[in-house]
Amino acid sequence: MVKSSRARMAEVAGCGGKVAGRLFLAGIRPGLLLGVSCALTPVIHFRKEFAAPSAIYRQDGATSAILARDDFTMRSASTCLPAVLLRAVAGRVMIALYGGYATPSETAGLGAAARTGA
Predict the structure, then answer these.
(1) Looking at the domain assignment, is residue 114 inside a domain?
(2) Assigned domain for 7 exists
(3) How many Å separate Cα 112 from the centre of its chain?
(4) Rounded distance, CA 94 to CA 104, Å?
(5) What is the pTM of this model?
(6) Torsion of CA 38, 42, 45, 49, to 10 degrees
(7) How many CB atoms lie within 10 A of CB 107?
(8) CA-to-CA distance for 63 and 57, rounded, in angstroms?
(9) Hey, how many other C-beta atoms are within 10 angstroms of the C-beta on 32?
(10) Is 21 within a domain?
């Protein structure tokens, strides 16, 4: 029996929530891979740039700006607090979404409310 186009559209529309959830889940692995590579790239480049002046310092005692030590205070460390809080809120929103506590639309509202401070 051949289904009409309306019946087929009704079937597709009925599983819309499952498709959206699968799309979110499909983005986790590439997102984590991209995040890790973006975090490791500066570390690798710094180690390469730090190695040559460090070797020269050990041989000749000549110093370079890259070898200078920086001391951080609580005031300078607290400047990153908003970024840390944003990531904590994003983590809670993802837990609500993937844990099945809220739908994608509701978690979008949770994220927007948390971002505006409501």
Answers:
(1) yes
(2) no
(3) 17
(4) 10
(5) 0.43
(6) 170
(7) 19
(8) 6
(9) 10
(10) yes
